[in-house]
Design goal:
Helix content: 25-40%
CATH topology of the largest domain: Methylamine Dehydrogenase, Chain H
Number of strands: 26
Strand order of the largest sheet: 3-4-5-6
Low-confidence stretches: 311-331
Number of domains: 3
Strand content: 25-35%
Mean pLDDT: 85
């Protein structure tokens, strides 16, 4: 989990206190900024102190989620209360002071991937699931674990956004449905995206609805007529978006649009205001003067203006902290893609045998790049393609592989991988070894010679291991005495 500053656009904190095989799937700060909630693939819901990164509480075990948690949300009215929704198809409400869930909702038939508290309705929770339903729950009574209302959609629910105490926007497929809980039906359906809508946000005090989708578009809709009034295009599919406000509670205005992309980048588009806006206009004037060939005249006028106002110097070339349109936060820097080696291109194309031949080819200095061969063999083993890469080879094609095995068979760090390679070679070519022994083929004879040398080297290593065990036993006895 990473926390960024909207003023400096820099990483403030990283919280990585998850399991080795765990992946963080959801996170949200409490409105006072002191506690961060997080859920992950392990099903554990955790509460962190956002200052010290300490784990304040974990909810796990028999009475917790058993599958990944993609949704955690704070109760907007109660500081210690929160909700979570999981792929185990349950919805739970927790209290920071208790180890067991206060309430558990049962009814969804597939993964629950989105949810929220309904504003102005104490204890009411709404969830969306891949079973294509939106369900409204009353969590005030522990015994009432069934939904109060259910709305059926035509596609899995990707995101929910409360618009008021009785209105809700739900994203399903490439449509956004406006639900009315009073009338119990859909009031309007927005069809402005070509692909699945993945995220929703509200802006300008409820007068604008923002939608982001896998088509890379962010659409801004008027909440009166639901028409598109603005749009932004991003270079890759959008997975999440949020509008960040600034200022006091009375004069709060939308300043930042944060968009998470499938490529791992976080885009921060900032709305300029006040002195920042004035400086941006000044830069535009300077650029226009430069294009028109009047840069010297513009500089002379600007210098006189600065002198009259008593300005010693202007911060030329410096950006305002946290300001500037269309900012890309480089928390996950993507360097220029490296040119792929021939064996890497063959591996990606599924040509496993060719990839092995290319990796075993000697380089300019006459040697084989051992790290590349190890990387390839490990990748083939993970893909269960090691047998495919080694099969159907002639004696001539087997020689480079056997030479490599002979060279590294006694290296302890490679023993497990080489053991798998040797077992497959013996299984695939045990019958052919006898044929090559009887033939006059030079490559066949070389294969026989390499196999014999590998056998001797393995036997020597086994003898040394036996002697090492004997020596270790003697040392243990001396240490005990």
């Amino acid at each position: 989990m990473q926390i960024y500053s909207t003023k400096t656009r820099k990483l403030v904190k990283t919280i990585s206190r998850f399991g080795v095989d765990d992946t963080a799937r959801s996170g949200v700060l409490r409105r006072d900024g002191r506690i961060l909630l997080a859920g992950g693939d392990s099903g554990v819901v955790q509460a962190f102190d956002s200052g010290s990164r300490a784990i304040l509480r974990q909810w796990r075990g028999e009475n917790a989620h058993k599958q990944p948690v993609h949704v955690v949300r704070w109760n907007p009215n109660v500081l210690t209360e929160l909700m979570s929704a999981s792929d185990d198809r349950t919805v739970r409400v927790w209290d920071l002071t208790e180890d067991v869930a206060k309430w558990t909702g049962i009814g969804h038939e597939d993964y629950v991937r989105c949810g929220c508290w309904l504003p102005g309705q104490d204890g009411m929770v709404v969830t969306g699931s891949y079973d294509q339903t939106v369900r409204l729950w009353d969590t005030r009574q522990p015994a009432n674990n069934r939904p109060s209302m259910t709305f059926k959609h035509a596609a899995p629910i990707e995101d929910l956004l409360p618009l008021s105490s009785s209105m809700l926007a739900s994203a399903a497929g490439n449509e956004v449905t406006i639900l009315n809980f009073v009338s119990g039906k859909a009031e309007h359906i927005i069809r402005s995206h070509q692909k699945t809508v993945t995220s929703l946000a509200i802006a300008q005090q409820g007068s604008r609805l923002l939608t982001g989708g896998l088509d890379g578009h962010v659409k801004v809709h008027n909440t009166t007529s639901w028409e598109v009034v603005a749009a932004f295009k991003y270079p890759s599919p959008i997975l999440s978006l949020v509008v960040v406000s600034a200022g006091s509670q009375e004069e709060k205005e939308d300043r930042h649009l944060a968009v998470g992309l499938q490529t791992g980048l976080l885009s921060l588009r900032t709305r300029l205001a006040g002195t920042e806006k004035a400086k941006t206009k000044e830069k535009e004037k300077k650029m226009a003067a430069l294009i028109a060939g009047e840069a010297d005249e513009y500089e002379r006028k600007q210098k006189k203006k600065d002198t009259r106002q008593g300005i010693r110097a202007r911060d030329r070339g410096k950006d305002f902290r946290g300001e500037g349109a269309d900012i890309i936060i480089t928390g996950n820097d993507r360097t220029k893609a490296k040119k792929l080696r021939p064996w890497q291109r063959s591996l990606r194309s599924g040509k496993y045998g060719l990839a092995l031949d290319q990796a075993l080819e000697p380089e300019k200095d006459g040697g084989i790049n051992n790290e590349e061969v190890l990387t390839l063999l490990t990748a083939l083993r993970h893909r269960s393609a090691l047998r495919t890469a080694l099969a159907n080879r002639s004696a001539e094609q087997l020689v480079p592989t056997l030479r490599w095995v002979l060279r590294y068979v006694n290296h302890a760090r490679h023993i497990n991988l080489i053991y798998d390679v040797l077992l497959l070679l013996m299984d695939l070519y045990s019958l052919k070894l006898a044929e090559w022994q009887e033939s006059e083929d030079e490559e066949g004879k070389e294969v026989q010679m390499l196999v014999a040398r590998i056998q001797r080297r393995v036997r020597q290593a086994a003898d040394m291991a036996s002697q090492a065990c004997t020596t270790l036993g003697v040392l243990d006895m001396l240490a005990a005495g």
